[in-house]
Write a structure and sequence with these properties.
This protein is an alpha/beta fold and 293 residues long. The protein is 29% helix and 29% strand. The strands form three sheets. A six-stranded mixed beta sheet has the order 6-7-8-3-9-10, sandwiched between helices. It has a four-stranded antiparallel beta sheet with strand order 2-1-4-5, covered by helices on one side. A four-stranded antiparallel beta sheet has the order 12-13-11-14, covered by helices on one side. It is elongated. The protein starts with a strand and ends in a 5-residue tail after the last helix.
Length: 293
């Protein structure tokens, strides 16, 4: 049974004069789902995120969150944690910025700020003025900002750009925790397929404002067993009784179910064959787009 979508984007078009930034775009997102928007610069990713956050108004179309129209009821987006070009006061410290933002949001000074600074590994730099921060540190502070209040939906625009490996790991860990542990959906844009492939459940590709692909990502691996001769018909028949995703090519047996490894070993031994080669290949987005080889 499929989940009810939490966010629904329905036939959204955004025009700037003659230019069409989004063209009749639709998509749904369910609770606990991590969805990555991919596409070249200028494809329409940021326009879509800005429309969902109500920073810009679409020319036509509707956007619903929990069944309510975002475009006519702006109060709804108070549940959103948003990281799109975060802005801070450079002349005060990171901690003071967060306290000010917390106060503006009507929040009391609790342990939340301390927790977030520790989570993003900025606690030791909390007294530094933001103007002394690197771009990556500002990104991490932006993550603190968008998680200051209780979040029901997380939206991030190119969160991994300019981050070192430590910063990337912090963001990925946060995204996975929020989606898979707290059941909060996450929508983020990226142009790096490796980062996307590592954490997303679904990928949506935009090109010239149109949706070109909307596909679940299965984090499976492909196993290849090589024997000393071509695979005989008797071996094929015996193996087909154990699994359905088996493929045979000359002296190779190719499959994706890890549990089949033991069965394959047993059947090959019974048939008088031995394994002379074994390899594992991770299926990823680059292979989906034919970028590996």
């Amino acid at each position: 049974m499929s989940k009810e979508p939490l966010l629904q984007v329905k036939n959204v078009t955004k025009r700037y004069g003659e230019k069409i930034a989004l063209n009749n775009f639709s998509m749904d997102i369910c609770s606990g789902e991590i969805v990555a928007l991919i596409g070249e610069n200028g494809a329409g990713k940021t326009t879509l995120l800005n429309s969902i956050c109500r920073y810009i108004m679409p020319s036509t179309g509707q956007i619903f969150y929990k069944g309510k129209n975002i475009l006519s009821d702006p109060v709804i987006i108070k549940e959103f944690g948003i990281l799109i070009e975060p802005q801070f006061l450079d002349y005060i410290s990171a901690e003071e910025n967060l306290k000010l933002l917390s106060k503006l949001a009507g929040q009391k000074f609790t342990t939340r700020i301390k927790e977030l600074l520790e989570k993003t590994e900025l606690y030791d730099s909390r007294k530094k003025k933001v103007k002394e921060f690197s771009f990556g540190m500002k990104q991490r502070l932006g993550l603190c900002q968008c998680l200051l209040t209780k979040v029901g939906f997380l939206i991030l625009d190119e969160p991994f750009v300019g981050l070192d490996p430590v910063g990337k790991e912090i963001f990925k860990r946060t995204i996975l925790d929020m989606a898979h542990e707290q059941n909060i959906p996450v929508l983020f844009s990226s142009h790096d397929l490796d980062d996307v492939d590592e954490i997303c459940d679904r990928v949506v590709m935009i090109s010239t404002g149109k949706k070109q692909l909307d596909q679940q990502i299965e984090h499976k691996q492909t196993y290849t067993v090589k024997i000393e001769t071509n695979v005989s018909e008797s071996i094929k028949q015996a193996l087909h009784q154990k699994g359905h995703d088996l493929q045979f090519y000359e002296n190779k047996i190719i499959f994706q179910e890890e549990s089949l490894i033991i069965d394959i070993q047993k059947i090959l031994l019974q048939e008088g064959h031995y394994i002379c080669g074994f390899s594992i290949q991770k299926n990823n987005l680059k292979s989906l787009f034919g970028m590996e080889g």
